From TrEMBL:
This is Glycosyltransferase involved in cell wall bisynthesis. Residues 58-176 form the Glycosyltransferase subfamily 4-like N-terminal domain. Keywords: Transferase. It comes from Desulfonatronum thiosulfatophilum. GO terms for molecular function: glycosyltransferase activity. It comes from the Bacteria.
Length: 391
């Protein structure tokens, strides 16, 4: 059995972490007794553990909490080195810039095989751009760099990476994790509870309320939508640092009756069933889980043309792509869908077919296992045309 130490640094069940949990589960199920995962999280010693850690333990995850003292704790490498020795780790896997720096130092010290995952930037500011550039520098020493989209892979090649070093492993979606056939009376009850008896169309933004998700600029677009479709409703499903600002903005603009904040929802299936259209005004993305989830429920997606979004949302087929921070373009795309229920239905059906065909977790797991096998055997594919391991 090969033992893999996955290094992460997060305090919530983020999109990349959900993908990782799904992926490791499928690897274990498809190849029982061949791979064992240890999931290592760095965490400040002075802070109580987040609820996430208890949730992961409840899922049967072999969790390793690596205590950190201050921002620059040079003992982390020594602590992780001890874990590696105790558990006889065969391979390192990193997710995020801090774990990648630690993996880089451990690679130099121990020579362990290292697979580095790049999920893209989670924010758009100078600090995060610097971190992402730093991450790209250190992962040069990884045996394989895994990107979640072809667009990101091309970015790494432009940055000077060898084609043989970079692999694309696109995110996947497990249909069994969602209830797509919500009873009509349950959907009606949810609509009455959170939307009222309004018979207008319901738009939704699903995900954390953080700057890079674009909620703030989307409010301009939604106001333009209301000029043409005055009975439209917008549901904001999620929570985060921008929530207070958004509530103040809606109050100032008189949108409280049209915009509903429903908070984080652990069970998301009924909410997708309630929506007529899913909107993604993101400023940056890797390969968006939200788009795949919406399409699984047969909902068309209007999204910004950023990151790996075009690899999921096919313009004019499963949704529409618009430029970032262009409210008029976003509003026009939404209004076109609201005016044409037949197009919504067709594009929604196309989207469901696409995600079921192209984003299988079984294919994703098989592709990752091939990467593991090649790295562990030292037999990396040197063929420059071997660009992607998942399609």
């Amino acid at each position: 059995m090969k033992r893999i130490l996955t290094l992460m640094s997060t305090d919530h069940l983020s999109g990349p972490l959900r993908q990782l949990l799904q992926l490791t589960e499928h690897v274990r199920n498809s190849h029982p007794n061949q791979y064992h995962y240890h999931m290592g999280f760095t965490w400040p010693a002075a802070l109580p553990e987040p609820e996430l850690f208890q949730e992961l333990r409840g899922r049967g995850i072999h969790l390793e909490i690596i205590s950190q003292k201050g921002r620059l704790d040079f003992s982390l490498v020594r602590k992780i080195q001890k874990l590696i020795a105790v558990h006889k780790i065969d391979l390192l896997q990193s997710h995020g810039y801090k774990p990648s720096i630690l993996a880089f130092l451990l690679k130099r010290k121990l020579g362990l095989p290292w697979v580095a995952f790049l999920h893209g930037r989670t924010a758009e500011n100078l600090k995060v751009r610097c971190y992402f550039k730093m991450e790209k520098l250190v992962v040069r020493k990884a045996d394989v760099v895994v990107t979640v989209s072809e667009r990101m892979r091309r970015e790494m090649l432009d940055f000077g990476f060898s084609p043989s070093q970079v692999r694309t492993l696109r995110n996947a979606i497990n249909p069994d994790a969602f209830q797509t056939n919500i009873p009509e009376h349950d959907a009606d009850r949810l609509r009455k509870l959170h939307v009222g008896r309004n018979g207008g169309p319901v738009l939704g933004i699903v995900g954390r309320m953080s700057p890079e998700k674009g909620h703030v600029w989307f409010m301009d677009a939604f106001q333009e939508v209301l000029q043409q479709v005055p009975d439209a409703i917008l549901l904001l499903i999620g929570s985060g640092q921008e929530e207070r600002k958004l509530k103040q903005m809606c109050a100032a603009r008189g949108l409280n009756g049209r915009v509903h904040f429903v908070g984080f929802q652990s069970e998301i299936s009924p909410w997708y069933s309630l929506l007529d259209l899913v909107v993604m005004p993101s400023l940056s993305e890797g390969l968006p889980n939200t788009a795949m989830e919406a399409m699984l429920f047969g909902r068309p997606v209007v999204a910004t043309d950023v990151g790996g979004v075009p690899e999921v949302v096919e313009h004019g087929v499963t949704g529409r792509l618009v430029p970032v921070r262009e409210p008029r373009s976003m509003a026009d795309a939404i209004i076109a869908y609201l005016a044409d229920p037949a197009m919504r239905a067709t594009h929604g059906a196309n989207g469901r077919t696409k995600v079921l065909r192209e984003f299988s977790p079984h294919v994703q797991a098989d592709s990752l296992i091939k990467i593991y096998e090649n790295v562990l055997s030292g037999a990396l594919d040197k063929n420059p045309d071997a660009r992607s391991t998942s399609s």
